[in-house]
Amino acid sequence: VTPADWPASGVPGLSNMAAPSGVRTCEDFAEFQELLRVMRTIDDRIVHELNTTLPTASFAGKVDANQTCKELYQSLMEAHASREKIIKSCIAQTSNVVKTLREEREKAQDNVALLKQLRQEQTKLKLMQSELNVEEVVNDRSWKVFNERCRIHYKPPKSQ
Q1: CB crowding 69-101: b at 16 or more within 10 Å, else e
Q2: Theoretical Cys-Cys bridge with 18: which of 8, 30, 152, 160, CB 3.0 to 4.6 Å?
Q3: What is the DSSP string of 20-69?
Q4: pLDDT at residue 98 above 90?
């Protein structure tokens, strides 16, 4: 995954939050977490976004709620898919590092530095895998709010 693959939020009212270019996100877990935090801005702000863009009954004629909900739906789908892609890509990359370190460890069992590095990578891998669970919770919360506020204005395709 390259920085070009990292999305910017397409939701009106949310600033574009792409990751800095050239960052080796998978190697540094803190950078990985920061990238996900920034990418989750759309989910964190969904209630505010809906409150400011969807009209109350008295202002219903002034805003196209159907279009607003459709755009929000598309932005959420893109954000969720791109975060999942990045998480899974980093898990695969880190898994390969762990596999390589295990093979090296087999050959040099008395190498303490290698063992330490292997344990660090295994810990990082477990933390990355736990981000998939976090992602599921964040996504479920966003879809719940989206469905509560947009169900009368927009019906998403059946694939969701």
Answers
A1: bbbbbebbebbbebbeebbbbbbebbeebbeeb
A2: 8
A3: PTT--TTT-HHHHHHHHHHHTHHHHTHHHHHHHHSPPGGGGGGS-HHHHH
A4: yes
* % residues pLDDT > 70 (the chain): 78
Does the pLDDT at position 5 exceed 90? no
Structure tokens at 98: 């762990």
Instruction: Please tell me the pTM assigned to this model.
Output: 0.77
What is each CA distance from 33 to 4, 16, 84, 90, in whole angstroms?
18, 18, 13, 11
Q: What's the full length of the chain, in residues? A: 160
Kindly give the interhelix angle for 65-107 and 112-150, rounded to the nearest 10 degrees: 170
Alpha carbon 93 to chain centroid, angstroms: 17
